[in-house]
Amino acid sequence: MEVPRDQITSLLDHGLYESAHTLGCFLVSSATANCDAGFPHVKAEQLVLLGDALYGEKEYKRALLMYKQAMQYCKVIPKQSTTSSRSSLSSSTRSSSPSSMNISAMNESEVKFKITLCHYALNDNRAALAEMEGIPSKARTLRMNLIMGKIYRHSRHNRSAISCLKDCLRHSPYILEAITALAELGVSAKEIISLFPQCKNSWKAPFDHFDSSRWLQRYAEAQCCIASNDYKGGLELFSELLQRFPNNVHILLEIAKVEAIIGRNDEAIVNFEKARSIDPFLMTYMDEYAMLLKIKSDSSKLNKLVHDLLNIDPTKPEVCVALSVLWEKKDERRALAYAEKCLRIDDRHIPGHIMKGYLFLSLGRPDAAVTAFRAAQELRPDLRSYQGLVRSYLSLSKAKEALYAAREAMKAMPQSAKALKLVGDVHAGNSGGREKAKKFYESALRLEPGYLGAALALAELHVAEGRNGEAVSLLERYLKDWADDSLHVKLAQVFAATNMLQEALSHYQAALRINPQSESAKKGLERLEKLMKGVDPDAPDEDEENDVDDADADQEEGDLL
């Protein structure tokens, strides 16, 4: 009794992969199927159908085996005519997909693409690329070109990636991921936009073409601005798009991501929270949001975010980074394990590399931190990877490399006050460079008067050179406009250093009123209270000494285990 092949096709079309898989086992093992010596195309088609079912169940290695066996049968099938063997986007409703196959005509290009998708899913880019390059360029569909562009990019064959992605935009200007990828690969907005008009006749816009092409152009320009580190220009263009498309979750997330990169943390948090209020099941960039909550010491929101993400999909790299952020203060090694798990899932996930770098710094491994920050930088240079590199090199006493990394940041982001401050930080590390550091901090403040990081660094420099009065007047001037806990903490530290303990107490208390979770304020206040009692704040408590002994014992037990 023959198993109905069209029923498997129907099950695949309806996404019933488990049923299709079970039925496919009957199909390929039936007595009729085994009499395939004279009909190799029948056996090949059966194997492809079983492969499609396995792919749908995410059993990629088994699907790969089925497709490769099908290709062996393809070799003995007489070559079809060019017309029947070449699929197009309009003529095949089930082409260019692992769960699709034109049963009436065996198409080797389609089977090769299915093999490519299996290799791609298994992160074997070299094998995927070898398979894709075996498909004639004229036989490649839109989806094939997009996947090929991604594989070339992951393999760092940027010129070939650009060529494939441009072909995608010639087919349709609405492939936004191709626009973003081209921008990140250094293609100019003008060149990207020049590809749009070529496809306006073959792709019908859902509304007025002039209006749609205008917002598409703005989108391309915004992505190019961000890719070239012109964050201000990118934010302006995204804000314009947000007015045209209010409550657009994608645009809100893009704006929040850029704000996080340039250190506008409060604005970024507001936009991340607005995006989550629209779509509470968001995963995109939620690890970036988690990092911001950690900076703000908002542990309650961070705990809730991680809980929500785990309930949505615990297998995503964003969840691993969020867990790493959550565990950073409690158990740095466990946090590092989560960051490494993220990169096993997706080795191109930038927040994973950045988190890994900062954890290595906390664990006293600046050499490993350099490797992690460099990996993040190769994927997309941003301020955080430059900051991490500078800190790592300074920890290694490599001032020359630190200065080079800081200057590299300044060159990449000439309009960034934070990049200027980074160069100042390197010069401030040695007494001979403090005058240069002062100039860079002042330049950063002229460029961005509200940049508290530069104001705090300049105040620190004044204190280091004994100009406590200047430090106090600078910080008090900023306090008039910005009620920020970090300003109060710095003022308290300056007052404590000059033995003005009551004033220091007042500012630590003010900092905790603004941010009750501020660790620096809590530690500073604890130290100050000891000073006010006449106790040496650096002397270890009796309980702390006992804790150290217990920790040593625990370590010995761990070694024995």
Amino-to-carboxy terminus distance: 61 Å
Structural class: mainly alpha
**Overall average pLDDT:** 84
Number of β-strand runs: 0
Oligomeric state as shown: single chain
Low-confidence stretches: 80-97, 99-105, 199-210, 544-561
Overall helicity? over 70%
Tally of individual helices: 32
For the sheet with most strands, the description reads: none
Cα gyration radius (Å): 29 Å
Tell me what the structure shows.
The protein is mainly α and 561 residues long. Helix content is 71%, strand content 0%. The chain has 32 helices and no strands. The chain has helices at 5-13, 17-29, 31-34, 40-56, 60-74, 82-85, 108-121, 125-132, 142-154, 158-171, 176-184, 189-193, 209-227, 231-244, 249-261, 265-278, 286-295, 299-312, 317-327, 332-345, 350-362, 366-379, 383-395, 399-412, 417-428, 434-447, 452-464, 468-479, 485-497, 501-514, 519-532, 542-560. Residues 80-97, 99-105, 199-210 and 544-561 have low confidence and may be disordered. Residues 523-536 have a biased composition (Basic and acidic residues). One of its GO terms (cellular component) is anaphase-promoting complex. Residues 538-561 have a biased composition (Acidic residues). InterPro entries: TPR-like_helical_dom_sf (IPR011990), TPR_rpt (IPR019734). TPR repeats lie at residues 485-518.
